[in-house]
Amino acid sequence: MLTVRAPATSANLGSGFDVFGLALSAPADVVRVEKAPETTIEVTGAGSQYIPTDPAKNTAGVVAQELDAPARIHIDKGVRPASGLGSSAASAAGAAVALNALYDRGHSDEELVRAAAEGEAVVSGAAHADNVAPAIVGGFTIARADGITSVDASLPLVVCLPDIVVSTRDAREVVPETVAMDDVVETVGSAATLAVGMSRDDPSLVGRGLQESVVTPARAELVRGYDEAKQAALDAGATGVTISGAGPGVLAVCRRPDDRRRVAAAMVSGFDEAGVDARAYQTAVGDGAELFR
Ligand SMILES: Nc1ncnc2c1ncn2[C@@H]1O[C@H](COP(=O)(O)OP(=O)(O)O)[C@@H](O)[C@H]1O
Ligand SMILES: N[C@@H](CCOP(=O)(O)O)C(=O)O
């Protein structure tokens, strides 16, 4: 039997829709695999009652099919589904890394990212790799059709999870189909600023680089309390705030590790002002999936 800890991730980072992603140091899923004649899935932990155990519908089962690696798979969910924290991706990434080791396949990280992204396609309708790439590789990742670029960034972060469910599939429906040139110019400027900020571990540049005016405002409509939580985090010293992935999670970048407590409390109060319960994780950029033999 093999065990893999696969981290939560925050995708998009505002300006990098379907491209940027960040591994978080916590929370995480724990995936255990054992060889079996056919794939079966058992799920426990956060929100497990909402997660299908049919291998064709579970992201980990889809990965087993993609890798032609049947197994008895147990997933202990640390990452609540439909959170915007890459819950479905954590299981897919964990399964990819675990099954690759279990069957001694020797696939590269990029091949594992491709297999795990097929799991994402089953739940969200698109094989976006921006969550599975950091969940496998760790750090800050840029996922493009021609490959993955990664930087081992170090930044204090807060993610606040309101008690609202937003499925990635639904949140993709509200993404505008066309973009004005002014918005393209703003997004390119932000994305470049953010990427430089990640390579310098500079929270001010990363915070400024989250700014984007196309996808985030459309999705903010689905997250009651987003505006209040964002303003509260900025007032408490965050350098930038955006929706994590497809939401409803909200990501704040902090200047110093000690700022996280204040920013986390401010975000929970911001949601409370809008009548929404929320919990906040004080976290940081973390490593990719970790294998325990
Ligand atoms: N192993 C899994 N872990 C979490 N969610 C899964 C898994 N397999 C399938 N799903 C389904 O994926 C959806 C959650 O994924 P998604 O909407 O992308 O949210 P998240 O941002 O949390 O990844 C839910 O409908 C859930 O039932
Ligand atoms: N790029 C995707 C990311 C979805 O992330 P998730 O954590 O909400 O699954 C999107 O924005 O649709």
UniProtKB/TrEMBL annotation:
Record-annotated GHMP kinase N-terminal domain positions: 58-139
Reactions performed catalytically: L-homoserine + ATP = O-phospho-L-homoserine + ADP + H(+)
GO cellular component, one term: cytoplasm
Binding-site list for ATP: R80, P81, A82, S83, G84, L85, G86, S87, S88, A89, A90
Protein localization: Cytoplasm
Pfam families in the cross-refs: GHMP_kinases_C, GHMP_kinases_N
Sequence ranges assigned to domain GHMP kinase C-terminal in this UniProt record: 200-269
GO molecular function: ATP binding; homoserine kinase activity
Keyword terms of this UniProt record: Amino-acid biosynthesis, ATP-binding, Cytoplasm, Kinase, Nucleotide-binding, Threonine biosynthesis, Transferase
InterPro entries: GHMP_kinase_C_dom, GHMP_kinase_C_sf, GHMP_kinase_N_dom, Homoserine_kinase, Ribosomal_Su5_D2-typ_SF, Ribsml_uS5_D2-typ_fold_subgr
Biological or metabolic pathway of the protein: Amino-acid biosynthesis; L-threonine biosynthesis; L-threonine from L-aspartate: step 4/5
GO biological process, one term: threonine biosynthetic process
EC number annotated for this UniProt entry: 2.7.1.39
Family: Belongs to the GHMP kinase family. Homoserine kinase subfamily.
Function: Catalyzes the ATP-dependent phosphorylation of L-homoserine to L-homoserine phosphate.
Protein's recorded name: Homoserine kinase
Gene designation: thrB
